Amino acid sequence: MPTKTIPYDVAEHLRTEEEMLLYIEAAFEEAGDDASFIAKALGDVARARGMTQVARDAGLSRESLYKALSGDRSPDFSTLLKVMRALGIRLHPEAA
Question: Which of 5, 30, 69, 77 is the most buried (most CB within 10 A)?
Answer without folding.
Answer: 69
